[in-house]
Design goal:
Mean pLDDT: 81
Strand content: 25-35%
Pfam family, one: PAS_9
Low-confidence stretches: none
Number of domains: 4
Helix content: 40-55%
Catalytic activity: ATP + protein L-histidine = ADP + protein N-phospho-L-histidine
Order of helices and strands: HEEHHEEEHEEHHHEEEHHEHEEHEEHHEE
Shape: elongated
Number of strands: 17
Organism: Chloracidobacterium thermophilum (strain B)
CATH architecture of the largest domain: 2-Layer Sandwich
CATH superfamily of the largest domain: Histidine kinase-like ATPase, C-terminal domain
Distance between the termini: 110 Å
Domain PAC: 75-128, 204-258
Strand order of the largest sheet: 2-1-5-4-3
Oligomer: single chain
CATH topology of the largest domain: Heat Shock Protein 90
GO molecular function: ATP binding; protein histidine kinase activity
Number of helices: 13
């Protein structure tokens, strides 16, 4: 009966269990021990046989013998062994318990062994993880998965790293078992807390920004990323929160934002003043033109004032927008067309500018504005006498270039008008040639039945910056 009870007990516990007398002869073993014995020796253990020789490694046998002698002397002993079989390595923990008779004399040893390889590996991994977390600059906080409600006392903090202690002023001992709510205060936004709670209730990761409070009551702004940790079955076992103090970062962003707004105001004022200065120059030229007696000089000054007005329109557009680095081409051409209608008093001519989202950098916008000004002036100057009633400004955009076409519907242009313009030494045409060369572009004059087209083509990359000069450009 006693042997039956002992065997039933041995089969019910995890790991190997066997007993030997002081002569090291086996008196009892369970099935787990038999399987391990068979794996190591290639044969089944037998009651009564000695155990000293069943391990092939002499160093391991000597180590086991050392612990057995201590157990035989009446000392309970726990030992740890490394077993190697082929390429596999196992770590076993064996507990030796002296077996005594009715007089208290040791008559044998009961040994219980467990494979602790997985536990050792997990413990080593956790130790390495602890080292990593301790060295992180961001605070790490681990809480239990449930409960979430404060009324139920959760979720309680299970772990914090050293960065958390530095950030909050709390020690690990002070926060373990508490909830993260100890960090919240009057200015912690309820909306962010509600969003956080909703994500936790759905077992979803979440990122929030909260005002938290240090142990001494000082506020700090923290960016928190919370993720669920799941076991192999998919069940959430805890929450891990990575917390980064963004107080100084946000303060710096605010300073930079203020500086940017001040810069925008300053640039806006600069463009406003430049526009006004241009207007002053225009007024002076027009005033001088009124008092000139030399024939033709008044026209020259009016033309010069008109060109200055073309440049002033760029700064007027910049003054009215928030982006001071680029000018929208269609808006610039629309302003130039309206200005040209005004200075030429050609109200009967309908001018149409095609919409288009082409942005020009400032170093390109100025020469483009002057060229378009001259092409529009040419359309009004030659198109109206040729019977034009409509002038159109159109754009074509490719990957590396922009084409601007100024087209009038005059039907009676001289057949040799392109040649006249190409060979002209008129100041306006010379400006067009020089500025087109500056843009690495070209200007083409193309008569067609029932209309005349002047086209400026220049390189411009997809990012709105001047592109490298394509083949065929100046």
């Amino acid at each position: 009966m006693l042997e039956f009870i002992l065997r039933s007990f041995g089969e019910g516990i995890p790991g190997t269990l066997f007993c030997h007398d002081l002569d090291q002869r086996i008196r009892f073993f369970n099935d787990a021990f038999a399987s391990q014995y068979l794996r190591l020796t290639g044969r089944v253990p037998q009651l009564g046989e000695p155990t000293v020789d069943f391990l092939p490694d002499p160093e391991l046998r000597a180590e086991i013998e050392k612990y057995r002698r201590r157990a035989a002397a009446g000392e309970p002993v726990t030992a740890e062994y490394t077993l190697r079989s082929g390429e596999s390595v196992e770590i076993w923990e064996v507990r030796y318990q002296p077996v005594r008779d009715d007089q208290g004399q040791v008559i044998g040893i009961l040994a219980w062994g467990q494979d602790v390889t997985a536990q050792k590996q997990e413990r080593a991994f956790l130790q390495r993880l602890e080292v990593i977390l301790a060295q992180m600059q961001d605070a790490v906080l681990v809480t239990e998965a449930w409960p979430i409600d404060a009324a139920e006392g959760g979720p309680r903090i299970l772990y914090v790293n050293e960065a958390f202690e530095r950030m909050t002023g709390y020690t690990r001992a002070e926060v373990i078992g508490q909830t993260p709510r100890i960090l919240q205060g009057p200015r912690t936004r309820r909306e962010e807390l509600d969003r956080l709670r909703a994500a936790l209730e759905q077992w979803q990761p979440v990122r929030v920004e909260l005002v938290n409070y240090r142990k001494d009551g000082r506020e700090f702004l923290v960016d928190i990323s919370i993720s669920p940790v799941r076991d192999p079955t998919g069940k959430v076992v805890c929450w891990v929160a990575i917390q980064r103090d963004v107080t100084q970062e946000k303060a710096m962003v605010a300073i930079l934002q203020d500086a940017l707004e001040e810069r925008q105001v300053l640039l806006q004022e600069v463009h406003h003043r430049v526009k006004n200065n241009f207007q002053t120059i225009i007024s002076l030229l027009e005033l001088q033109a009124v008092h000139l007696e030399q024939p033709g000089f008044d026209r020259l000054l009016h033309d010069m004032a008109s060109r200055i007005r073309a440049m002033a329109l760029i700064h007027e557009q910049l003054y009215q927008q928030s982006d001071f680095s680029h000018v929208l081409l269609d808006e610039l051409c629309a302003s130039l067309a309206a200005h040209m209608q005004q200075v030429t008093a050609a109200a009967s001519v309908r001018v149409e500018v095609q919409p288009g989202q082409v942005a020009l950098p400032l170093n390109v916008a100025v020469p483009v504005a002057l060229i378009v000004h001259e092409l529009l002036l040419n359309a009004f100057k030659h198109g109206i006498p040729a019977g034009a009633h409509h002038i159109a400004v159109q754009f074509r955009r490719t990957a590396d270039a922009v084409t601007i076409e100024v087209i009038d519907d005059g039907r009676h242009h001289p057949p040799d008008l392109p040649a006249q313009l190409e060979g002209s030494r008129h100041f306006g045409v010379r400006i067009v040639r020089l500025l087109a060369r500056q843009l690495h572009g070209r200007v083409d004059f193309m008569p067609e039945p029932g209309r005349f087209c002047a086209a400026l083509t220049f390189p411009l990359g997809p990012d709105g910056e001047p592109a490298s000069t394509p083949p065929g450009y100046g």
